[in-house]
């Protein structure tokens, strides 16, 4: 019985990987820091060092996998985890506890929890349905990053998402959409800063700190900022600093700010959300209802990519329940049954 319990995650991971592998042409590989689970590789670094892993392959992180050391992505791959938080992940998160350095262009990371800094060091990087700590740039080629349907929560007094600069093209043309971005730190807490020609839409941004450098948006140049719900909890006049306002429209801001920001002012978060703001449910008469430039709601559930709680990867199977027989049959086999669903949103 002890062996059966030890191998349960391997059985489930292989079952899900087999279901998924039938839909893709490139090779797929399992990642698990526990060598007893017999993965293909014990971390991303090992996969990158292997000649068998080539551009276009997919790395699946097993349920419960936790990579402690810094991980360096040096080949164009897709890394897929199990999502995060809530009942949507009944079988364990997939976590990168060390820094994640994305050095290969066109890399995608989906459904992974990161608890250290994510460094975008190449063009066309996508972070989707991830729960992240903070996101930074490094190097000269960091354009066209996409941060979509992510939960970003940083509590150390610095920007949650930070590019190279307001007029710096190194990190130009980023897209940040349908994400929750929380700045919980002390001095210099900011949600988004130092971006040029970005598209920032349908997000919920909350800055919990009021200090000299505490702003929701800071140093944003020639960017579309639209359909967001912006909550600066103590001093809304500090919601935006050094932000070009010609493309800032259809945002809901938690208190009065200057008229040229072209937004709907509301005095309390209670008039936007029902109950606690973390419910993310708009009141029936919320100013965010149908206020988006595209006619949809402002915030994370409007637009083309509504936020998905739990961060389960789209188009991939996950199990909701499993049952393992308590004993083997006369042939020495243990019966395993799984309830499988496909994430279709």
Question: In terms of topology, how is this protein built?
Answer:
Elements (H helix, E strand, L loop, with lengths): L1 H20 L6 E4 L12 H6 L8 E4 L4 E2 L3 E3 L4 E3 L14 E2 L3 E3 L5 E3 L2 E2 L2 E4 L5 E3 L2 E2 L1 E4 L8 E3 L2 E4 L4 E4 L12 E3 L2 E4 L6 E7 L2 E3 L2 E4 L7 E7 L2 E3 L2 E4 L7 E4 L4 E2 L1 E3 L9 E3 L51 E8 L11 E7 L3
Parallel strand pairs: 1-2, 2-5, 3-6, 4-7, 5-8, 6-9, 7-10, 8-11, 10-13, 11-14, 12-15, 14-17, 15-18, 16-19, 17-20, 18-21, 19-22, 20-23, 21-24, 22-25, 23-26, 24-27, 27-28
Antiparallel strand pairs: 29-30
Describe the structure.
It is built from 2 helices and 30 strands. It has 345 residues and is mostly beta strands. The strands form 6 sheets. The protein has a 10-stranded parallel beta sheet, with helices on one face.
């Amino acid at each position: 019985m002890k062996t059966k319990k030890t191998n349960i995650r391997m059985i489930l991971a292989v079952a899900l990987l087999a279901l998924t592998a039938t839909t893709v042409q490139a090779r797929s590989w399992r990642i698990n820091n526990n060598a007893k689970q017999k993965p293909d590789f014990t971390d991303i670094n090992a996969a990158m060092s292997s000649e068998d892993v080539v551009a276009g392959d997919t790395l699946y992180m097993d349920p419960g996998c936790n990579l402690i050391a810094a991980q360096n992505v040096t080949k164009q791959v897709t890394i897929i985890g199990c999502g995060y938080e809530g009942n949507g992940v009944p079988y364990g998160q997939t976590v990168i506890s060390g820094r994640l350095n994305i050095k290969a262009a066109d890399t995608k990371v989906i459904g992974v929890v990161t608890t250290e800094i994510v460094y975008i060091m190449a063009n066309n990087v996508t972070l989707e349905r991830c729960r992240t700590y903070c996101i930074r740039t490094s190097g000269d080629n960091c354009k066209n990053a996409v941060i979509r349907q992510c939960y970003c929560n940083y509590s150390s007094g610095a920007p949650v998402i930070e590019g190279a600069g307001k007029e710096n093209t190194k990190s130009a043309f980023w897209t940040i959409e349908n994400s929750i971005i929380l700045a919980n730190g002390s001095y210099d807490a900011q949600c988004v800063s130092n971006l040029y020609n970005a598209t920032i839409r349908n997000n919920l941004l909350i800055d919990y700190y009021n200090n000299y450098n505490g702003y929701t948006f800071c140093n944003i140049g020639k960017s579309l900022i639209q359909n967001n719900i912006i909550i600066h909890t103590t001093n809304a006049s500090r919601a935006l600093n050094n932000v070009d306002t010609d493309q800032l429209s259809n945002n809901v801001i938690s208190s009065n700010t200057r008229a040229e920001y072209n937004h709907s002012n509301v005095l309390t978060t209670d008039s936007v959300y029902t109950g606690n703001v973390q419910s993310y449910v708009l009141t029936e008469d919320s100013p965010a209802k149908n206020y988006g430039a595209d006619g949809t709601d402002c915030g994370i559930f409007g637009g083309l990519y509504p936020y998905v709680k739990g961060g389960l990867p789209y188009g991939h199977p996950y199990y909701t329940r499993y049952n393992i027989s308590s004993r083997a049959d006369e042939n020495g086999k243990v019966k395993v049954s799984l309830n499988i669903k496909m994430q279709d949103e």
